[in-house]
Amino acid sequence: MHKQKNLIEKIFKLKQQRRAIILAHNYQRPEIQAIADFAGDSLELSRLAAETKADCIVFCGVRFMAETAKILSPQKTVLLPEYDARCPMASLVNAEDVRALRKQHPKAKVICYVNTTAEVKAESDVCCTSANAVQIIKKIDAEEIIFVPDRNLAAYCQTFTDKKIIIWDKGYCYVHDRITMEDVNKGRNKWPEALLLVHPECRLEVIRLADQVLSTTGMIDYVKKSKAKKFLVATEDGILYRMKKENPDKEFMVVGSVNQCCNMKKTTLQDIFYALHKNQTKIVLKDDVIQAASYCLKAMLTYV
Ligand code: 13P
Ligand code: SF4
Question: In what order do the strands lie in the sheet with 126-128?
């Protein structure tokens, strides 16, 4: 405990010296969320990265999030403390796949989920996150939409529109995709009075059982406002940290047996200290990729 306190003091000192800001995703370890300047979902963190006046952004999340920060703030130093924290879903589609899809569907516009590499963003028309995907699908000026890579989020969006969504069947999040209807039923049997909150990366059959379908911050905000006292949560278990802290009078249970994203859990306090101390791992992207990818991210931020 004493060791951890010392480490946190060193992190704060370095952070001040470097005029840095620490951003953390809602799935990060509790001790990381506790010291972050801000914890949030992908959309909030993108907005903050675009607006911050800090010289350096320490991004505690996975690589695509740190890349997004770099694309939106190219003049700043963006550090990913754990170089190997990657979202497996982001590697399930590449720039070549998007070019091939465009050839097959020349009239379609491309919406890429934020969980993509910078190169995929550079090939896309608009980006989206779990918080704004439905709004963007509705607003985009196209009757045919190629949506990459999350097949579950795409299928969920299709339930809101008559536009044709071309789904990339190879893309999914292994954490959400393995949550089953049986898992939900088990939770409901235990807590019949609880509300079920589901992340839209889950399968459609699980989404259909939900009381609310929300992004991670959407869930946190909903819980705060709700009069209900018990919640079943179909997403990664890092979300419980803020839910419990901000609502000590309410109870939460994640649905499913293994709800951890191992990449989200890779970053430690030690990594953050070394990130600031040794300037690692610096996100470096080619100028032309930054320029093309910023177009689709800025389109998202002006759309909604
Ligand atoms: P949110 O944008 O809802 O936080 O989701 C990010 C993510 O990676 C979910 O798996
Ligand atoms: Fe990627 Fe899923 Fe982990 Fe989110 S929870 S970072 S989508 S693997």
Answer: 126-128, 109-113, 144-148, 164-167
Please tell me the residue having the least CA distance from ligand 2 atom 1: 87
Q: Which residue's CA is the nearest one to ligand 1's atom 4?
A: 41
SS3 of residue 94 by DSSP: coil
Residue nearest to atom 8 of ligand 1 (CA): 115
In this prediction the pTM is 0.97
Q: What is the chain's pLDDT, residue by residue, as a tens digit (304 residues)?
A: 788 999 999 999 999 999 999 999 999 999 999 999 999 999 999 999 999 999 999 999 999 999 999 999 999 999 999 999 999 999 999 999 999 999 999 999 999 999 999 999 999 999 999 999 999 999 999 999 999 999 999 999 999 999 999 999 999 999 999 999 999 999 999 999 999 999 999 999 999 999 999 999 999 999 999 999 999 999 999 999 999 999 999 999 999 987 999 999 999 999 999 999 999 999 999 999 999 999 999 999 998 7
Q: At what angle do helices 269-278 and 2-17 cross, to 10 degrees?
A: 30
- How far apart (Å, rounded) are the C-alpha atoms in residues 33 and 243? 12
From 174, 178, 258, 267, mutation site for ligand 2 pocket: most ligand atoms within 8 A of C-beta:
174
User: Of the candidates 57, 89, 90, which has an alpha carbon nearest to the alpha carbon of residue 72?
Assistant: 57
Identify which ligand lies nearest to the alpha carbon of 171: 2
**How far, in Å, from the CA of 107 to the mean position of ligand 2?**
30
Q: Ligand 2 pocket: which of 28, 43, 87 to mutate (most atoms <8 Å of CB)?
A: 87
**Cβ pair 80, 63 in contact under 8 A:** yes
Residue 231 is encoded by which pair of tokens?
């919640």
Ligand 2 centroid to residue 38 C-alpha, Å = 19
